[in-house]
Amino acid sequence: MSYSMWIILTASLVGLSCGLIGVFLILRKQAMMADGISHTVLLGIVLAYMVTQEVSGPAMLIGGIFAGILTAFLVQTLSSLKVRHDASLGIVFTSLFAIGVILISTSVGNVHLDVKHALMGEITFIPFTTMDIPLIGSIPKATALLLLVLLVVIFFIVAFYKEWKITSFDAALAASLGIPVIFFHYLFMTLVSVTTVASFDAVGAILVVAMLITPAAAAYLWTDKLIVMLFLSGGFGVLSAIIGYWIATWLDTSISGSMALATGCIFFVTFLLSPKHGLISRLVRPAELREEQEA
Amino acid sequence: MVSSVINVDDLSASYQKNKVLNDVSFEVKEGTITAIVGPNGAGKSTLIKTMLGLHPKLTGNVSFWDSPFKTAKKKIGYVPQRGSVDWDFPTDALDVVTMGLYGKIGWFRIPSKKDKEKAMNALKKMGMESYAHRQISQLSGGQQQRVFLARALAQDAELYFMDEPLAGVDASTEKAIMTILKELKSNGKTVLVVHHDLQTVPEYFDHVLFLNKKVYAHGETEEVFTKDNIATTYGGDMQWVGKGDQYVIQSTSH
């Protein structure tokens, strides 16, 4: 496969996994948690590097899971101590991120890790680091990692589909039925973390937030069915990846930046055209229908 | 001898560092409908949540049929406040009702045709079958409350907890809900309802529990639903606008 095909494939995998996870971030009203975790996984990755002295996929995943759960746990603890939830998140993620930045520049400097790379990602270099997988052949390491994470994400979404639905919609009922709501909260944070870590190399910490939230927010405006929202959101993620690559080649600019721009464009088009919530449908809808819906 | 379904002993709980329940003790007999009344911030919702283990307790003990919540939970149905969920969630009425069955369906399984039928029957009971496939944000407040009631019916529990099921609903919904509550009672089920409208207490409930951080009075409505008990429970938090024997009270709650 050519370099550009690998890049498009990798970007699409980012779009797909982030799109699926993003649906639940939006529905659980935890979009800002993604912002937090996308930063704190940096600490996890740095710690993983310090322990293993190499940049390897599995170690990074474990480090990221550790950082993600630590973030969720600290935010929960602070809010239970009467700090406002949004403030708790602001305190926790900036502090953990700062520790990560300091560790990068003092302890592990001059390796593959650096702050700019962590924030922006560099998908262009992904095809250069490959590994051999039996039967498939040589594929880029980051792509393999993303593929693995995508399978994990899909597995958990399918296996616990009704549990995700009920804990997202009505956590109190779920708890009264004996469904372990707290366990699912942390499992979800783990999934957000692994998705973020795997996407890290490709799009970086800041743009992964765009990939996590924007396609799902757009999908939310198109449909009234959870299952459709999942497919749409994943689809928008992949579409953003492809459009983003195309914009980047055309303007000769950053691929990850263009991908984020593409998610924004898709959201904007949705906002104008969506049948139920869109700006245009609101303007052209007959007045009596509008009244009935608002009543 | 009618047996006790609920035994609450010396229960206390706090909410954001303020103690909202203090030494709450009471018993509920099988086949009764109890109204839990009290002013805003009296801890009515917290009481229900603490009993169901949704809110941490500080002291005390709650048992259902002489066993802890964990072993009894399959026989308990819970109707949270309507405002506690996001009605823009992408799902329809039938799906919400089906959620009441998730505890019984078990891990790694999706709702079967039978489960969907059960949910549909519950919707029918609440007169909502024609709205089964309507997105939940397209329902009126009363219809949303009926969906919540249907979900509890689908659970087919022995004991129901309902948090303000009659708050902000239209007259016909109120009637429909009360008919169902009476039907539940005649089938020997036990119901606890957080209620805000004192006027309707004598008509709707056979037992009443006055709560304002602690239990002020509890018993059969005929005996304990008196002006005195209302006055001590609500304290300065109310005005009498009533005439004669009617308990028309405007409290600062809702």
Automatic annotation (TrEMBL), chain A:
Chain ranges passing through the membrane: 6-27, 34-51, 57-75, 87-108, 142-161, 173-196, 202-222, 229-248, 254-273
Classification via Gene3D superfamilies: ABC transporter involved in vitamin B12 uptake, BtuC
A biological process term (GO) from this entry: transmembrane transport
SUPFAM superfamilies found in the cross-reference section: ABC transporter involved in vitamin B12 uptake, BtuC (SSF81345)
Record keywords, A-Z: Cell membrane, Membrane, Transmembrane, Transmembrane helix, Transport
Record membrane topology: Multi-pass membrane protein
Coiled coil spans: none
Keyword Cell membrane tagged: yes
GO cellular component: ATP-binding cassette (ABC) transporter complex
Protein location: Cell membrane
Family note: Belongs to the ABC-3 integral membrane protein family.
Protein name per the record: Manganese transport system membrane protein MntD
UniProt gene name: mntD
TrEMBL record, chain B:
Gene3D superfamilies per record: P-loop containing nucleotide triphosphate hydrolases
Keyword Glycosyltransferase in record: no
Pfam family, one: ABC_tran
Key words of the record: ATP-binding, Nucleotide-binding, Transport
GO MF term list: ATP binding
Location of the ABC transporter domain: 6-238
Family indicated by similarity: Belongs to the ABC transporter superfamily.
Name by which UniProt lists this protein: Manganese transport system ATP-binding protein MntB
Record organism: Oceanobacillus neutriphilus
Gene that produces this protein: mntB
